[in-house]
Please model this.
Amino acid sequence: MKRIIMMIQPKNLILVSLLLLAAFGLFADDMNNSAAAYIRMGIGARTIAMGEAGTATTKDVSSAYWNPAGLTEMKDIEFSSMYNLSMGLDRTYKYAAIGKRFDFGVLALNWINAGVSDIEGYNDLDQPTGFFSNNEHNISISYANRYKRFSFGASPKFYLSNMDDDTQTGFGLDLGLKYDINQYFQAGLMARDLIGKLDDDTIPTQLALGVAGHPFMGVTIAADVVMESKEDPKLNFGAEYWTPIGRDPEADSKLSVVNMTERSSWDDLMSNSQTGLRLGFNEGRFTVGTGLRFRSIQLDYVYRFSNHDIFNDDHIISLILKF
Model:
Protein backbone atom coordinates (compact mmCIF):
# COMPACT_ATOMS: atom_id res chain seq x y z
CA MET A 1 0.00 0.00 0.00
CA LYS A 2 1.51 3.27 -1.11
CA ARG A 3 2.05 5.89 1.56
CA ILE A 4 1.03 9.45 0.68
CA ILE A 5 3.02 12.40 2.03
CA MET A 6 0.64 15.12 3.23
CA MET A 7 1.39 18.78 3.81
CA ILE A 8 -0.81 21.44 5.39
CA GLN A 9 0.02 25.05 4.61
CA PRO A 10 0.09 27.58 7.51
CA LYS A 11 -2.79 29.58 6.02
CA ASN A 12 -4.92 26.42 6.04
CA LEU A 13 -4.11 25.81 9.69
CA ILE A 14 -5.29 29.35 10.42
CA LEU A 15 -8.59 28.69 8.66
CA VAL A 16 -9.14 25.46 10.60
CA SER A 17 -8.39 27.32 13.84
CA LEU A 18 -10.95 29.96 12.91
CA LEU A 19 -13.53 27.21 12.43
CA LEU A 20 -12.77 25.95 15.93
CA LEU A 21 -13.05 29.43 17.44
CA ALA A 22 -16.35 29.94 15.63
CA ALA A 23 -17.69 26.74 17.15
CA PHE A 24 -16.94 27.89 20.69
CA GLY A 25 -18.21 31.38 19.95
CA LEU A 26 -21.59 30.12 18.80
CA PHE A 27 -22.02 27.75 21.72
CA ALA A 28 -24.77 28.79 24.13
CA ASP A 29 -25.40 27.71 27.71
CA ASP A 30 -29.08 28.40 28.27
CA MET A 31 -30.70 25.37 26.64
CA ASN A 32 -32.50 22.39 28.12
CA ASN A 33 -31.75 18.95 26.71
CA SER A 34 -35.19 17.36 26.54
CA ALA A 35 -36.99 18.48 23.37
CA ALA A 36 -36.67 16.42 20.16
CA ALA A 37 -33.97 14.18 21.62
CA TYR A 38 -34.44 11.66 18.78
CA ILE A 39 -32.87 14.13 16.32
CA ARG A 40 -29.48 13.32 17.93
CA MET A 41 -29.67 9.58 17.14
CA GLY A 42 -27.91 9.82 13.78
CA ILE A 43 -28.79 8.53 10.31
CA GLY A 44 -27.08 6.35 7.73
CA ALA A 45 -25.32 3.07 8.53
CA ARG A 46 -22.03 4.26 7.00
CA THR A 47 -21.58 7.32 9.21
CA ILE A 48 -22.95 5.63 12.33
CA ALA A 49 -20.42 2.82 11.78
CA MET A 50 -17.69 5.48 11.70
CA GLY A 51 -18.62 6.56 15.22
CA GLU A 52 -20.89 9.34 13.90
CA ALA A 53 -17.86 11.31 12.72
CA GLY A 54 -19.71 12.75 9.75
CA THR A 55 -19.13 16.51 9.86
CA ALA A 56 -16.25 16.43 7.36
CA THR A 57 -16.75 13.03 5.70
CA THR A 58 -20.24 12.83 4.24
CA LYS A 59 -20.63 13.72 0.57
CA ASP A 60 -23.94 12.17 -0.45
CA VAL A 61 -27.57 13.04 0.25
CA SER A 62 -27.19 12.00 3.91
CA SER A 63 -25.04 15.12 4.33
CA ALA A 64 -28.29 17.01 4.83
CA TYR A 65 -28.27 15.57 8.37
CA TRP A 66 -24.55 15.51 9.25
CA ASN A 67 -23.48 18.71 7.50
CA PRO A 68 -25.62 20.18 4.70
CA ALA A 69 -22.49 21.69 3.12
CA GLY A 70 -21.50 18.18 2.03
CA LEU A 71 -24.40 18.08 -0.43
CA THR A 72 -22.23 20.02 -2.89
CA GLU A 73 -20.37 16.79 -3.73
CA MET A 74 -23.49 15.16 -5.14
CA LYS A 75 -23.38 14.70 -8.94
CA ASP A 76 -27.06 14.55 -9.86
CA ILE A 77 -29.99 12.76 -8.14
CA GLU A 78 -29.68 10.63 -5.02
CA PHE A 79 -32.13 8.78 -2.78
CA SER A 80 -31.33 7.39 0.66
CA SER A 81 -33.24 5.46 3.31
CA MET A 82 -32.45 3.79 6.63
CA TYR A 83 -34.12 1.44 9.09
CA ASN A 84 -33.13 0.19 12.55
CA LEU A 85 -33.95 -3.53 12.73
CA SER A 86 -33.59 -4.17 16.45
CA MET A 87 -34.57 -1.23 18.65
CA GLY A 88 -36.97 -3.23 20.81
CA LEU A 89 -39.43 -1.87 23.39
CA ASP A 90 -41.91 -1.16 20.55
CA ARG A 91 -39.70 1.62 19.20
CA THR A 92 -39.03 2.51 15.55
CA TYR A 93 -36.58 4.87 13.87
CA LYS A 94 -36.67 5.60 10.13
CA TYR A 95 -35.16 8.02 7.66
CA ALA A 96 -35.51 8.89 3.96
CA ALA A 97 -34.13 11.66 1.76
CA ILE A 98 -33.92 12.67 -1.87
CA GLY A 99 -31.66 15.31 -3.39
CA LYS A 100 -30.85 16.81 -6.77
CA ARG A 101 -28.19 19.10 -8.19
CA PHE A 102 -29.31 22.23 -10.03
CA ASP A 103 -27.44 25.06 -11.72
CA PHE A 104 -28.01 27.22 -8.63
CA GLY A 105 -26.88 24.59 -6.11
CA VAL A 106 -28.14 21.38 -4.50
CA LEU A 107 -31.56 20.84 -2.91
CA ALA A 108 -32.58 17.92 -0.68
CA LEU A 109 -35.81 16.89 1.07
CA ASN A 110 -35.33 14.91 4.29
CA TRP A 111 -37.62 13.02 6.68
CA ILE A 112 -36.84 11.45 10.07
CA ASN A 113 -39.41 9.50 12.08
CA ALA A 114 -39.16 8.10 15.61
CA GLY A 115 -42.05 6.29 17.25
CA VAL A 116 -43.15 4.22 20.22
CA SER A 117 -46.29 2.08 20.09
CA ASP A 118 -48.37 0.21 22.68
CA ILE A 119 -47.74 2.68 25.50
CA GLU A 120 -50.07 1.85 28.37
CA GLY A 121 -51.91 4.90 29.72
CA TYR A 122 -53.19 5.56 33.25
CA ASN A 123 -55.45 8.21 34.76
CA ASP A 124 -54.91 10.19 37.98
CA LEU A 125 -56.27 7.26 40.00
CA ASP A 126 -53.62 4.96 38.52
CA GLN A 127 -56.26 3.09 36.53
CA PRO A 128 -55.38 1.84 33.02
CA THR A 129 -57.00 3.84 30.21
CA GLY A 130 -55.80 1.81 27.23
CA PHE A 131 -52.87 2.03 24.90
CA PHE A 132 -51.59 4.90 22.78
CA SER A 133 -48.65 5.75 20.52
CA ASN A 134 -46.09 8.51 20.20
CA ASN A 135 -44.83 9.64 16.79
CA GLU A 136 -42.15 12.24 16.12
CA HIS A 137 -41.46 13.66 12.66
CA ASN A 138 -38.78 15.99 11.37
CA ILE A 139 -39.02 17.31 7.80
CA SER A 140 -36.38 19.59 6.32
CA ILE A 141 -35.40 21.18 3.03
CA SER A 142 -31.66 21.59 2.57
CA TYR A 143 -29.74 23.87 0.24
CA ALA A 144 -25.99 23.83 -0.44
CA ASN A 145 -23.55 25.55 -2.74
CA ARG A 146 -19.84 26.00 -3.19
CA TYR A 147 -17.38 28.87 -3.50
CA LYS A 148 -13.81 27.85 -4.36
CA ARG A 149 -12.67 25.53 -1.53
CA PHE A 150 -15.59 26.39 0.73
CA SER A 151 -18.97 24.64 0.74
CA PHE A 152 -21.89 25.96 2.75
CA GLY A 153 -25.38 24.67 3.45
CA ALA A 154 -28.54 25.29 5.43
CA SER A 155 -31.51 23.13 6.48
CA PRO A 156 -34.68 24.82 7.78
CA LYS A 157 -36.69 22.15 9.62
CA PHE A 158 -40.25 21.49 10.72
CA TYR A 159 -40.99 19.41 13.84
CA LEU A 160 -44.23 17.51 14.45
CA SER A 161 -44.92 15.52 17.62
CA ASN A 162 -48.05 13.41 18.23
CA MET A 163 -48.58 11.92 21.70
CA ASP A 164 -52.03 10.36 22.05
CA ASP A 165 -54.37 13.33 21.44
CA ASP A 166 -51.67 15.96 22.01
CA THR A 167 -49.97 17.55 18.98
CA GLN A 168 -46.95 19.84 19.13
CA THR A 169 -45.17 21.65 16.31
CA GLY A 170 -41.88 23.47 16.05
CA PHE A 171 -39.05 24.58 13.84
CA GLY A 172 -35.28 24.44 13.64
CA LEU A 173 -32.35 25.57 11.54
CA ASP A 174 -29.12 23.72 10.77
CA LEU A 175 -26.10 25.47 9.25
CA GLY A 176 -22.98 23.81 7.87
CA LEU A 177 -19.60 24.71 6.43
CA LYS A 178 -16.88 22.56 4.84
CA TYR A 179 -13.39 23.47 3.70
CA ASP A 180 -11.12 21.42 1.44
CA ILE A 181 -7.74 22.03 3.05
CA ASN A 182 -5.95 20.11 0.30
CA GLN A 183 -6.26 16.83 -1.58
CA TYR A 184 -5.94 14.81 1.61
CA PHE A 185 -7.71 16.76 4.36
CA GLN A 186 -11.14 18.33 4.87
CA ALA A 187 -12.61 20.23 7.81
CA GLY A 188 -16.26 20.83 8.65
CA LEU A 189 -18.36 22.83 11.08
CA MET A 190 -22.01 22.08 11.81
CA ALA A 191 -24.56 23.89 14.00
CA ARG A 192 -27.64 21.73 14.60
CA ASP A 193 -30.78 23.56 15.70
CA LEU A 194 -28.99 26.88 15.90
CA ILE A 195 -32.57 28.11 16.19
CA GLY A 196 -34.99 25.49 17.51
CA LYS A 197 -38.36 25.41 19.29
CA LEU A 198 -40.97 22.71 19.93
CA ASP A 199 -44.03 24.46 21.31
CA ASP A 200 -42.74 26.13 24.49
CA ASP A 201 -39.57 24.03 24.70
CA THR A 202 -36.22 25.15 23.32
CA ILE A 203 -34.40 22.51 21.29
CA PRO A 204 -30.76 22.51 22.43
CA THR A 205 -28.15 23.70 19.97
CA GLN A 206 -25.51 21.13 19.09
CA LEU A 207 -22.18 22.11 17.54
CA ALA A 208 -19.77 19.77 15.79
CA LEU A 209 -16.28 20.40 14.47
CA GLY A 210 -14.83 17.65 12.31
CA VAL A 211 -11.73 16.75 10.33
CA ALA A 212 -11.17 13.94 7.85
CA GLY A 213 -7.99 12.60 6.28
CA HIS A 214 -7.18 10.16 3.47
CA PRO A 215 -3.70 8.78 4.25
CA PHE A 216 -3.92 5.85 1.83
CA MET A 217 -5.88 4.91 -1.25
CA GLY A 218 -9.44 4.03 -0.19
CA VAL A 219 -8.85 4.88 3.49
CA THR A 220 -10.69 7.59 5.43
CA ILE A 221 -9.99 8.51 9.06
CA ALA A 222 -12.29 11.03 10.73
CA ALA A 223 -12.87 12.67 14.10
CA ASP A 224 -15.57 15.05 15.37
CA VAL A 225 -15.78 17.09 18.56
CA VAL A 226 -19.46 17.51 19.47
CA MET A 227 -20.60 20.10 21.99
CA GLU A 228 -23.99 20.65 23.56
CA SER A 229 -25.03 22.92 26.40
CA LYS A 230 -24.73 21.60 29.95
CA GLU A 231 -22.94 18.49 28.69
CA ASP A 232 -19.28 17.60 28.39
CA PRO A 233 -17.84 17.71 24.85
CA LYS A 234 -17.62 14.28 23.27
CA LEU A 235 -15.24 12.83 20.70
CA ASN A 236 -16.52 10.76 17.79
CA PHE A 237 -13.90 8.74 15.95
CA GLY A 238 -14.13 6.48 12.92
CA ALA A 239 -12.21 4.84 10.09
CA GLU A 240 -13.20 3.30 6.77
CA TYR A 241 -11.50 1.21 4.10
CA TRP A 242 -12.86 0.38 0.65
CA THR A 243 -11.39 -2.41 -1.47
CA PRO A 244 -12.40 -3.48 -4.99
CA ILE A 245 -14.22 -6.73 -5.73
CA GLY A 246 -14.90 -5.99 -9.39
CA ARG A 247 -13.39 -4.16 -12.34
CA ASP A 248 -12.17 -0.54 -12.16
CA PRO A 249 -10.57 -1.15 -8.77
CA GLU A 250 -9.91 2.35 -7.47
CA ALA A 251 -11.96 3.19 -4.40
CA ASP A 252 -14.07 6.33 -4.40
CA SER A 253 -11.84 8.41 -2.17
CA LYS A 254 -10.16 11.77 -2.55
CA LEU A 255 -7.22 9.93 -4.13
CA SER A 256 -9.24 7.97 -6.69
CA VAL A 257 -9.31 8.61 -10.42
CA VAL A 258 -12.70 6.87 -10.68
CA ASN A 259 -15.81 8.64 -9.41
CA MET A 260 -18.52 6.12 -8.58
CA THR A 261 -21.25 8.73 -8.78
CA GLU A 262 -20.98 9.18 -12.55
CA ARG A 263 -24.21 8.83 -14.47
CA SER A 264 -24.47 5.31 -15.89
CA SER A 265 -26.94 3.01 -17.55
CA TRP A 266 -28.69 0.15 -15.79
CA ASP A 267 -26.65 -2.26 -17.95
CA ASP A 268 -23.51 -1.58 -15.92
CA LEU A 269 -25.31 -0.89 -12.64
CA MET A 270 -23.48 -3.72 -10.89
CA SER A 271 -20.04 -2.84 -12.25
CA ASN A 272 -17.20 -1.22 -10.29
CA SER A 273 -18.16 -3.15 -7.18
CA GLN A 274 -16.37 -2.52 -3.88
CA THR A 275 -16.71 -3.65 -0.30
CA GLY A 276 -16.02 -1.53 2.73
CA LEU A 277 -15.09 -2.09 6.38
CA ARG A 278 -15.70 0.50 9.12
CA LEU A 279 -14.93 0.93 12.80
CA GLY A 280 -16.00 3.66 15.17
CA PHE A 281 -16.20 4.79 18.77
CA ASN A 282 -18.24 7.41 20.62
CA GLU A 283 -19.83 7.87 24.05
CA GLY A 284 -18.22 4.71 25.40
CA ARG A 285 -19.56 2.37 22.75
CA PHE A 286 -18.07 0.74 19.68
CA THR A 287 -19.50 0.37 16.21
CA VAL A 288 -18.52 -1.92 13.38
CA GLY A 289 -19.94 -1.98 9.89
CA THR A 290 -19.58 -3.01 6.31
CA GLY A 291 -20.88 -1.94 2.93
CA LEU A 292 -21.26 -2.93 -0.70
CA ARG A 293 -20.98 -0.26 -3.35
CA PHE A 294 -21.73 -0.55 -7.03
CA ARG A 295 -21.85 2.16 -9.67
CA SER A 296 -25.31 3.41 -8.69
CA ILE A 297 -26.22 1.49 -5.52
CA GLN A 298 -24.70 1.44 -2.05
CA LEU A 299 -25.84 -0.88 0.76
CA ASP A 300 -24.51 -0.36 4.27
CA TYR A 301 -24.85 -2.17 7.61
CA VAL A 302 -23.73 -1.27 11.12
CA TYR A 303 -23.74 -3.10 14.43
CA ARG A 304 -23.78 -0.61 17.31
CA PHE A 305 -23.18 -1.82 20.86
CA SER A 306 -25.65 -0.45 23.40
CA ASN A 307 -24.33 1.31 26.49
CA HIS A 308 -27.68 0.98 28.32
CA ASP A 309 -28.82 -2.23 29.99
CA ILE A 310 -32.47 -1.87 28.94
CA PHE A 311 -31.78 -1.23 25.24
CA ASN A 312 -30.81 -3.74 22.57
CA ASP A 313 -27.70 -3.47 20.45
CA ASP A 314 -28.56 -1.84 17.13
CA HIS A 315 -28.61 -3.48 13.71
CA ILE A 316 -29.04 -0.71 11.14
CA ILE A 317 -29.22 -0.96 7.36
CA SER A 318 -29.28 1.86 4.82
CA LEU A 319 -29.52 2.25 1.07
CA ILE A 320 -28.30 4.93 -1.34
CA LEU A 321 -29.39 5.08 -4.98
CA LYS A 322 -27.56 7.37 -7.41
CA PHE A 323 -29.07 8.33 -10.76
Remarks:
- The longest strand covers residues 128-147.
- Residues 12 and 181 are 6 Å apart (CA to CA).
- Helices lie at 10-26, 45-49, 63-66.
